[in-house]
């Protein structure tokens, strides 16, 4: 093969021995997972905000941001459940660029996957321990989910991964809500097929084992916009788009818990993070207009950090994204309160 085998990486069981969950973390994860599932099942009418940095590149800044969310959550707890983002691996369209904490614990240094695996688990555990939240991460590599399966509260499957069979089958064996994004083409059928696959039982190969998944009833849609054949961004958060997704769910009555999260950045905002509040209020207006849309829309995915915008790795602005541009803290805090006032 045209590749160099550098070293065999530590297995999840060994990492968990090195960073074992405490009873406090276990209690938080169990309680918050139950709350989140209740929202997706329709037994809890609160909305979910999956909010936080595009990528978790700096532990101090990430923890600073997460700590700021604690008093905000307390003020909106009756209407909103915050599930902060700690995204530790990032898909790159061309393969170039910063690939996340998993690849580069030091964003300006070389890749070190072993250190990245340890850093990823350490950060997720520290965040749960110190904040009392459960966290979301993207499942870029299905085989790596096992390193965090006892900590994570929410999993997203990206637009470029949603057609992949291993992602779909692994999602069927996950015990927390998994969001399936529409592909970059915008094809709803691809997304709905992914949800169908994730909700079913399967037998497949996972980390060298023959495994039998039990199906994930909380697998659901994430609308993130699409890209046209002319490379233009095409949003899919408008009323007609949401109604169409309702129709898709109604055409598949075998799916449990019809649900959608609206990604307010990416192609929906043309990667203009300051547009995210406007998009959210547009969706909330649609929810107020149609009860079936209100029942389906469970919340929003928001890219937010301490500083507005983005920078290149190594530029050194504390709390500013080094991947996609984000909404800064002051605007984000106001947005959360404004959402709570509207629902």
What does this structure look like?
With 343 residues, this protein is α/β, with parallel strands linked by helices. Helices cover 37% and strands 14% of the residues. The strands form 3 sheets. An 8-stranded parallel beta sheet has the order 2-1-12-11-8-5-4-3, with helices on both faces. A two-stranded antiparallel ribbon has the order 6-7. Strand 4 (154-157), helix 5 (165-171) and strand 5 (178-181) form a beta-alpha-beta unit. The longest helix has 19 residues, at 113-131. The protein is globular and about 55 Å long. The relative contact order is 0.14. The model has no long low-confidence stretch (mean pLDDT 96).
Strand fraction: 5-15%
Mean pLDDT over the full residue set: 96
Topology pattern, helix = H, strand = E: HHEHEHEEHEHEEEEEHEHHEH
CA radius of gyration is: 19 Å
Tally of helical segments: 10
List low-pLDDT spans.
none
The end-to-end span amounts to 56 Å
Approximately how much helix is present in the residues? 25-40%
Q: What's the story with the biggest beta sheet?
A: 8 strands, parallel
> Largest beta sheet: what is the strand line-up?
2-1-12-11-8-5-4-3
The outline comes out as globular
Q: Structural class, from secondary structure content?
A: alpha/beta
- Quantity of strands, as a count: 12
